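Pinned message: reference record for DUF790 domain-containing protein
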Amino acid sequence: MSASAGGSTMLTSDLLCVKVSKKTVEGKKSKVAFVEPEYLDVGASEALQRAEELVSIFERHLGDAEQNTRGALEESLADLVGHGTDFVIWRGLAKLLLDRSEFETVSSIDPDEIRRHVFEASAELGPVTSESVRQKVLAQAGATLKVAPDEVEHGLYADLEARQRLTSFKTIDPQALLHRYNLALAQAVLYKATRLVVEFGDLDSNQLRYLFQMLKFHRLMHRFERKKGGYRLEIDGPASLFSKSRKYGLQMAVFLPALLVLDRWELCAELDWKGGGKSKGSTPYRFLLSHTDGLVSDRRVTGQWVAEEERYFEDRFAEADTEWKLARQGSIVELGDNQVIIPDYRLTHPDGREVLLEVVGFWRLDYLERRIDLLAKSKKVPLVLVVSERLKTGRGKLAKVPAEVVFFKGVILVNRVLEAVELASKSG
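Predicted structure (tokens):
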């Protein structure tokens, strides 16, 4: 059995190093609280030295058969990290390295099975009051299990977290670790975001396609529009704070590395910093970030990503008895109100009709209503929305579901999509 230590590649709230400063913003009567991460200087010799020491601890324990338990590794980390004023920073760096590690319960026999036989032997031989009795118990349990006594002793509690073995570690350059820490700080702040607004300079078509692909990949509700000299992206957050909302906050946080590879941008995030949502008269919290802050991503502008349900839909569509042809849509489509989209698919018919298809992941009622309203106003190529019922946040139902909206739970049904496409193509 193996397990990743960290679970998440972000910093937990107890490891956050930020300062909050209240400032008066132009046009605002009350002050706004700005959350500012305390980034590390990635070129500082002391920080680089400490990062190198942390990485070497993991590498050393991985190669030491006697010291590669989780417990031994954490003892070494505790000795290095200490309890000084910078304790939280170095625990944060260690956490990111634990996220790059795999631990495994190493035992030839299930530890539960070993314990059962040891307890049975102990019941038969009497209380373990001396080392000699202990060895007899191990020997008898080993004989029953057909393994050596030392193997019984090793496997007895091998499944305890402290006894798990470090089986792999994805090493990292010390400076890259410091960059990763700074990114993780910003992501941990964005985890509490309820809304993002990003202003871009002009983007080329390749960057635009990449940006839309990443928005789709992270299933983010968004509004993208042209403005003078560039573009404006608004990412909607959850309407209320419950289980799916925190999951959505995570999606906004993990979207950040995709943003960092673009050229010129400025981000403003509204935060639910203290939890519980907004209350009347409460201080608003903001987080500002831009390309000038020096955060580094290991992402690259690459080809398009396809969701599992979309891939399945494409396979089923290829088998359908229809004259419509389905193709991935790579072109930018300008709609009303300066809004811009890159739909997922374009369907074409031999008679010349065309219909665009957009798959909607996370959504709120007001978000979907805006999308439908835009669909109705557009006089260009007809558009069909294919909407996941599983990824809705908030309550409420559409007063009226247009024919051009198709809901799905797990599988996108080709016949229902084709019905909507036919209706859209004739009304467009």
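Pinned by admin. Summary line: Confidence is low (pLDDT under 50) at residues 1-7, 239-244.
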